[in-house]
Design a protein that fits this description.
about 325 residues, alpha+beta, 7 helices, 21 strands
Length: about 325
C-alpha cells in the first residue's frame, strides 16, 4: 500500500462498476463489500474499499472527517501505464522536468530545489536578480536580452508545471510516504520534510505557524483544501481583489468560550478565474503564503444560541502570480 492513487471507482469480479458512494452505502447498511479490482484496463489488480470515518485529534472542535476511497491491498500494485500508478506518474513528471529544478542524486533519488521556485515566485530571475522583460542592458544587444528572457520564462513555466504536477499527485496519494521515499525537498542547504511542505485541512494550524516563523524567508508550501465561498468586489468598490475561501479548521482552547479558526484564502484580481473552482471543489494551492494579523470577534454558538463565543481567526493568504499555482485535485 502507499504506492497507489486514491480511486473513486472499481470493478467487482463480475465486471460491475462500483463508485465510492455506492460502496459507502453498502457499508452504512452493514452489507457485504464485494471483492474489487482496478477498473483501468489492462490493470485489474486487487484493490480495497476504505470507508469514511472520523478521527479524533487533540485540540479539535470536531473530529476530522476522513473521506472514503478505494486503494491498493497490502500485496498488490498497479501495472505500468495504469492511470492510478503513482510511481508511473512520478516517473513521467520527472522525465519532463528541468534538471536544474529536479536534480538526480547519487542515491538514485531526486531532489526538488525549492529555493529556485522561491526566487521566481518572488519575481527574481534564475540567478537571483529580477527578470528583464523590455529594453536592453548596457553593452548588449536587444536580441541577447530577448533570448535570455525567453529562456528564463521557459524555465519558469517548467518549474511551475513540475510543482503543480507533484502537488496534485501528492493530494491523490494516501500519505507522504511514497513521494518522500523518492523525492527529497531542499531549500538552499536545508532539507525539508514533506510534512513541512504539504498540508491538508486538518493541519492548517501547523501551516500557519510555519509561515509565521519563516517571515520574509518562508519557503513555498502547498495546501490542499475544499472551496467554501467566493467574494467578488462590487464595481467601483474600495477593494479590487476577489477571494476564494476554503473550509476552515476549528481548534479548541483552554477556554471553552474561545475558539481558534484557521482560514485559508486566495486573493486575485480575476474573480472569474477563481469562480471556475466552484464550491465543493477539492483544490491544491502552492506558493509563498503570508499570514494576516490575528482577529477576534464575538458571536453566538450555532449549537447553543444563548452562549457567546469569542472566535480568534488566523488567516493564511496566497496571492498567486501564476494560474498554475491553483489546481483541481481530481484524478
Amino acid at each position: 500500500m502507499g504506492k497507489g492513487i486514491k480511486m473513486r471507482s472499481a470493478l467487482d469480479r463480475q465486471g460491475k462498476v462500483w463508485s465510492v458512494e455506492a460502496l459507502q452505502a453498502l457499508h452504512d447498511e452493514q452489507r457485504e463489500i464485494p471483492d474489487l479490482v482496478c477498473d483501468h484496463p489492462p490493470c485489474g489488480c486487487a484493490v480495497r474499499f476504505v470507508h469514511r470515518y472520523q478521527q479524533n485529534r487533540s485540540n479539535r472542535i470536531e473530529p476530522i472527517d476522513v473521506p472514503a476511497y478505494i486503494g491498493l491491498t497490502s500485496d498488490s500494485e498497479h501495472v505500468a501505464g495504469c492511470r492510478y500508478d503513482a510511481p508511473g506518474r512520478l516517473k513521467a513528471i520527472v522525465a519532463q522536468s528541468d534538471p536544474d529544478f529536479v536534480k538526480l542524486l547519487e542515491t538514485g533519488k531526486r531532489e526538488l530545489r525549492l529555493l529556485v521556485l522561491h526566487n521566481v515566485l518572488r519575481g527574481k530571475g534564475l540567478s537571483g536578480t529580477r527578470l528583464i522583460r523590455t529594453g536592453t542592458a548596457t553593452g548588449t544587444s536587444g536580441g541577447n536580452t530577448t533570448i535570455d528572457v525567453t529562456q528564463s520564462e521557459k524555465k519558469l513555466s517548467s518549474y511551475l508545471r513540475t510543482t503543480a504536477d507533484l502537488v496534485a499527485l501528492r493530494a491523490l496519494c494516501e500519505s507522504d510516504a511514497f513521494l518522500a521515499s523518492e523525492l527529497v525537498l531542499r531549500f538552499g542547504t536545508r532539507r525539508i520534510a514533506w510534512k513541512e511542505f504539504f498540508f491538508e485541512r486538518d493541519r492548517y494550524d501547523d501551516a500557519w505557524e510555519l509561515v509565521r516563523a519563516g517571515g520574509s524567508n518562508a519557503f513555498p508550501i502547498a495546501l490542499a483544501g475544499t472551496v467554501r465561498t467566493h467574494h467578488i468586489p462590487s464595481p467601483g468598490g474600495k477593494y479590487k481583489n476577489s477571494f476564494l475561501n476554503c473550509h476552515a479548521l476549528y481548534r479548541k482552547t483552554d477556554n471553552p468560550d474561545r475558539v481558534e479558526t484557521f482560514e485559508v484564502s486566495i486573493a486575485h484580481g480575476d474573480g472569474k478565474w477563481l469562480t471556475d473552482f466552484s464550491a465543493g471543489t477539492d483544490i491544491v494551492m502552492f506558493g509563498i503564503w503570508r499570514v494576516l494579523d490575528r482577529a477576534e470577534q464575538e458571536g453566538k454558538d450555532p449549537r447553543n444560541p444563548s452562549r457567546t463565543v469569542t472566535y480568534v481567526t488566523y488567516k493564511l493568504m496566497l496571492e498567486p502570480k501564476f494560474r498554475r499555482q491553483v489546481i483541481g485535485a481530481g484524478v
